[in-house]
Each structure stands twice: as C-alpha cells, then as structure tokens.
Fold Flagellar biosynthesis protein FlhF.
Amino acid sequence: MSVMRFLGVNSREAMRQVRDALGDDALILSNQRVEEGVEVVAVADEVQSSLVEQAEPVAAPASSAPGQDRLYAEMQAMRELLMSHIAETPRPRRARPGVHGVLRQRLITAGFSARLVREMLAALPDELSDVAADDPRLLAWTRRQLETRLAVLDDEAAMLEDGGVFALVGPTGVGKTTTTAKFAARYVMRFGGEDVALVTTDDYRIGAHEQLRIYARLLGVDVHAVHHEDDLEGLLSALEGKRMVIVDTVGMSQRDQRVAGQIARLGGAGRPVRRLLLLNAASHGDTLEEVAETYQRASRDAGAPLYGCLLTKVDEAPRLGAALDVVMRHGLRLYYVSHGQRVPEDIRLAEAPALLDEALAVGQGSPFTFDENVLTDMLRPTDAGQDLQALSRDLMAQRHQLMRVMETLQRDVPGMALMAAAWRHRESPRAMQQTWLESHLTPPPMVKTWREAQATGLFWPGGRPRGMDWMAPMLPLDAHGDVLPMAWPLHRWPPSDTQRLTLARRHLGSHWHVFARMPDVEVRQQLQEAGSPWLARARVQQRVWYAGERLAIGDVVDLAESCGQHTCRLRGRERRVTLACLPVSLTADDTEALQLWIATSHDPESGRQRGVYHWLGHRGDALEIDMRACVYRQLEQDDLLRLMRTAWQQLGASMDCELRVYLAAQLAALSLRMELSDEGWAVDTRPLVKRLAGERKRRSPETLLHGLMHLLTAHTALSQAS
C-alpha cells in the first residue's frame, strides 16, 4: 500500500505537497501537528479503489465455521465504513498550481537558493496569494523583493574621484589580474593615468607580473611588484601621492589556511585598503557561498568587512541566480560585472534591474534543479553542528530582512525616520527625552518637515481620547486624505483653535481639514471665509435644520439621496459601503449650509448591515467628487483614535508623557497607512510586520500596530548590537 507521509510548516503547505504528489483525489488518513510543523498521512485514489475492490462481498460457504462468519461480518462493516468515508470526502476541482509553487519553481530554476526562496515566500502578501502566475503585480513584487536585497554602486564617478587603495582578492582563476586592468581603465578613461598605480603581489603564477606590466603600458600607468607581502606597507607609503592604487593579490583557495594571513597583511598596511572580493558567476552556489563566507570572516578578523564585490565570467554563467543570491545574503555591495577578456570593453557597472532581468529570464529547467521536497529535506539539519549553523544563518537572514523593512519604511514613508529616532529614546532618562523633543517637535523643524512631506490637509483629533491622559496630537493629511505619521503634540500649537487654523493655513499649507468632532462656531466661520473645505464626524443626536424643521440626524437619514457605493477596508475586513448625502443647515436661516453624509457598511457576503457613520461638512458642487472620496477615506481611517489609545496603553507610563503620546499617534497613523495603501512599500512590508505580531493573527490595523512595535524594538536592539 502506497501510504505516504508529508511534512509542512503549516496545513496549507502540507496539503499542497499532497496534491502535487497524489493529486486532488487523495484520501487523507491523518492530520496532526508535530514539532517540525504539520504532518499529513495520505493515500492515492487508486489505492482507495483497490481497497474497495478487495472489500467486495463474497458468498459465505454454507458450511462456514462461526469464526469465518464473524470475519465475513467484519469485512462487510469495513467495506461500508470505507465506502461512506469515500462518499463524504470532498472532490475539489483540479486547480492550477498555486502561486507559491510557481514562484518557488521560477526562482529555483533561476539559480536562487532555497533559503532565499523560502524567505521571500514567507513575505508574500495575502493579496497576491491567489493571483495568476503571470499577474503583473506578482512579477513587480518579485522584482522589488530582489532589488531591495541587491546593493549596487550608486555613484561611480564619486567613487573613482575619491580614489583610495583597492585590493582585489579571491580564489585562483577568478580573473583578478584582468579585472585589475579593467578597473584601472575605468579610472583612466575619466581622469587620465597620471594618478593611477597598479601593484601585484602574485609571485606564484608564472607570467603574472609580465601580464600586468603589459596592461599598464597599454593604459599608460605605473606598475609595481611586491616580492614579499611584508613590503606592501612601505610601497603604499611611497605611493601616497597616487589617487588610485589597485592591488592584484595572490589567488588562494577559500580552503587555504593562508587566506586569513593574506587578508590580515592587507589590513596592516599604512593606508586603508578597501578589499573587493571577486566571485566567479559560473561557479556552483555552494562554492560561492564558501568563498564569500571565508573571505568575509577573514576580512572582519582583519578589522573591517569586505568593501564590496565584483562578478566575473558572467558570459560563462548559464544562471546568475546563485551568484546574486550569495551577494544578497552576505550583504555585499556589487560594483562591477565582468563578461569577457577584452580590456577595457568587457566590464560594466552593476545595475540591479538589468542583472535581475537576466537572472529571471532563464527559460528552461536544469537537470541539477531539485524539486521542492528534496530541497526541504536538504535544508533540514541532521546533526547538532548543522543545527547551530542553520540557526545562525536563519538569525542573520531575519536580521537582514528586518533591516530591509526599516530601510524601505524610512525611504518611502514621511516621518518614519523621526519615529525610529524617538523610539530609540524610549528607554532614555526623561531629561534626555525632553531634550530630544525640544530639538525636533518645536515649530521651526515641524513646519519644515510638514512642508517637505507636501501635506495639504490637517486632522484635528478634537481633544483627549477616552483612555488617554493627554490631548491627541495634530496629524497632517496628504492630497488623497491619507493620514501621515508626522504627529505634532497639541500643546506646542497656539492655544485657540482659530489661531491653530491660521497657523495651518499660512505656514503649513493646510487647505482642507478633517475634524474628529464638530468644530465651534468661530472655526466654522473662519473656514467659510477662507473657502476651505472641511469634514467633521457627527453624532446621530446632532440637530440640524432641514425643510424648516430642526431635527436630529437620525431622523433625516432616510431622506438622504444615495450617491454611490464603494468597497472599503474597515478594521481589517472588506465592507461594501453605500454613501448618501443630504443638504442641511445648522441655522434656521440657512447661513451655515452644510452637507450631511451618511455611510452604511454591509458585509459583502451576507449583506448584513455592520454600521452607520455620519459626517457634516462643506457644501459645494465643485468639490462634491473630492468630498465623496474624502468621506470614503475617512471612513477607513475612523479607527485612528482607538488605535492611538491602544498604542498609548501598550507603551506604558515609564516614559515622558509627550514622547508617549507622540509615539502613540505615530504608530496609529503608520499602521493605518500601511493597512490601506496599495503602494509597493506597503505591499512589501506588510507580511513581515504582520508576522511579527503573531503567525495566526488576521491582518488588521491593530495587528500591524503590534507588529510595528516589535519591529522598532528589534531594530533598536540590532542597531545597538552593531
């Protein structure tokens, strides 16, 4: 009987393995959680059929013994039980291969390691888990994930102009001498050869000195030979006047015990030596991994990590995935790519998009590409030594992943860098916290920060939220109505709302406003005089004038005219929202003509009503479409103050109250922005942030808020450890 056992990190992964191996009609015999994950025992459909055929009833001989009768009855009972189980087993339609499987195979075929693939699949956003394999969003996400991991040289001109001493290191036969000439040619073509010197320390290879001298004559640069590596320090001192010095070192296998000594001697030279590792792109991934690990460890022991790396023999590599994978996972910056013997033509600046296009363009599989089950078994440690090594690598991968997420957030989210700096002061003495607050949250720096973020709107929290001891800060809004994580504590604003409105209009460029509660008469008059659109959350008991009568909003809801439908995300769930509006006034003479907006949310599956929300706001036909979009967005952000209260309570009372309310508002705003945004940065960072909050938690703003707190804590600890 072909009973098979499958092991996955979760039920979905295990069931996917069952479907791939036995088909959709497999019979599940058991499903249980074990230490390694989830274990599923299954049997193929044809085995079911054979069991049924074997269990067909047979005529019992008339002279059968009592024991045979009992056996016959048991066989009949087993047959009935098996048939009923088969009848109750769901027979799903044969589905196309899942996104995880297609993406896994695509990356493995390109040469990327199973470890990197597993890390990427763990970060796959929920919204991409069911799309087609050729969906542009999936392809764009894959490229972004790889591009953020691949660091390349940003400015070649600045690097060459700064100059310095560069030592090219690596195994034998990787192309160090030829690459030395190509590297020097890049400088000579820009600045000439007067300030360049080539140095060779290779006494092992016959003709090494002569080969470099030929290149030097062609380029018009000086060349020097060091016959003993201990003489290198004196030579570098003599070449102090040269802007660019390139050292061609002796090639050594990564398993040669002299590697550490060679790297140490380079580090002991008088001038700082920047070590560039050369990696043969045509080598096997395991070889490249060993080379990078050995030379990086030796370089760190010598006082500084590798400065970067170059890929050689790219024209000989059938797949670039393995080489790029090693560069990514070891955090090396890729400078150049060499693809031939010609000097200076066959070298180019490393560009991440072009390299990844080339890596992912592999069209056919390889006889050396294992299937996913074999890769899973290969990655499972088999002894204590491998266990520790795997744990160390996993921790390094998680560290790099956390750092990438923080880099993405700080690059693409206004206010994130400031929030990370504030978080680092969370455990500082209160005097230091106050010093930081005074230097960053006073009007001059905040006005500059808000203007740089192009904030066009302003959210007024309307006092102290329930459960908080401090007034909630003001928050800016972008042109789409999304709240920006750039909180400004209220006590640092002018004392009155009218003065705050003047400051916002004149100095911050805030032309429209959203209020958590109805503004007072003076503010409404000032808004009307300035022609500024505004929107305020209203209670159902709020009284308005309609058709000559003063009625509660709840009494006029049924009179409103429907003006659209939209699908929104409310507290992490999809809701179908119906919007209606009604012209009303706050005065009997209609001098304060407003628009009443009513949003009713329903469950999209059951149609059950989930909530009714009311706003009062500026009335104007020219702005109706904008205001409608604003209402939808503010409905999705209606949870802002509740999230702020949750963050306030989670932060605890040990820190300065102003820092505490600032961080609470920042976390609430960022968790909402991350939940609602469809931009690349949000799609890429959401999975990890959600996972930090707990594997089983549903995606929601509150889940992301807890994940952000874990992310900031981990980032601070890793930064301090570094």
Observations:
- Residues 55-64, 91-96, 372-386 have pLDDT under 50 and may be disordered.
